[in-house]
Write a structure and sequence with these properties.
20% strand; alpha+beta; eight-stranded antiparallel β-sheet; 14 helices; Beta-lactamase; two-stranded antiparallel sheet
Amino acid sequence: MDNPILAEVTRGPVVESRHRGAAIVVDAEGAVVLSLGDVARPVFPRSAVKAIQALPLLESGAADRYGLSEAEIALAVSSHSGEPLHAETALGMLRKAGRDAGCLECGAHWPSNEAAARALARSGAEPTALNNNCSGKHAGFICLSCSLDEDPAGYVKAEHAVQREVRGALEAVTGAPHDPALAGTDGCSIPSYAVPLQALALGFARIGTGHGLPPERARAAARIRRAAAAHPFMVAGTGRFDTRAMELLGERLFIKTGAEGVYCGALPKLGYGIALKCDDGAGRAAEVAMAALIARFLPMSEAETAQFAPLREVVLKNWNGIEVGRVRAAAP
């Protein structure tokens, strides 16, 4: 059976494109609040689970040993835009552990932020691994490795102590086995494991509430949420959905995008976790679908509702600045 349509794109009065997918909302006990489509099919969460991947950095004491700031903790769970502050903050994390950018094994790419990419090109410089959207997460991995007295070299490999800690946290928080038979390699070269959306939603309900987590892990999750709420720019960047939504809603919301149309989130005061995946991998569809779920469950003031509206229904303009259509969540 086909998954339902989660989002659609209009041109004038006509629906031009449709994006199918699955989505689920659960509470911290695992009770299903809302379920759409095949939520049992394993999917790769990709970067959506960076908050869980960062738990060992805090639980181990590495974050405190190296004096990581809230902004640096927020960067450790980010998929940032490669803007100067992002790159500088990642370098600062490495220096606190006595390392430099040469230790990063995530690869280099141009900043996804157009202004930052143009400025870098004008300077005559080439992008480095610090501009990689995952450099904050990888700087955190290196801090963890150094704190464990492990050689950081090869920290992206499944057999390295860092990735063993990360896999253990993922399994414990989501309650799902992370089977090497269902593993792939992420864009930043670390292992990625396919798990059901239902398990991801439960993991985020636990991240949002601490329920079902050991005390130290619950404290680590709370620190990550506070850091993201205090520094939403670090989690994504200028104009990005995650940053804009968390700037508006603060500690009432923690969300994280993943590649290929995945989104996960927590509504801490409600105790809910959310996970969704667009079948075609479209990020634009995942964003409006996530926005619709947030708006459905999270109470907002009239002013907040108005400010949130452009995230729920994205205006599309042509090169002359003329509105030509919208990206919107499909009617339930």
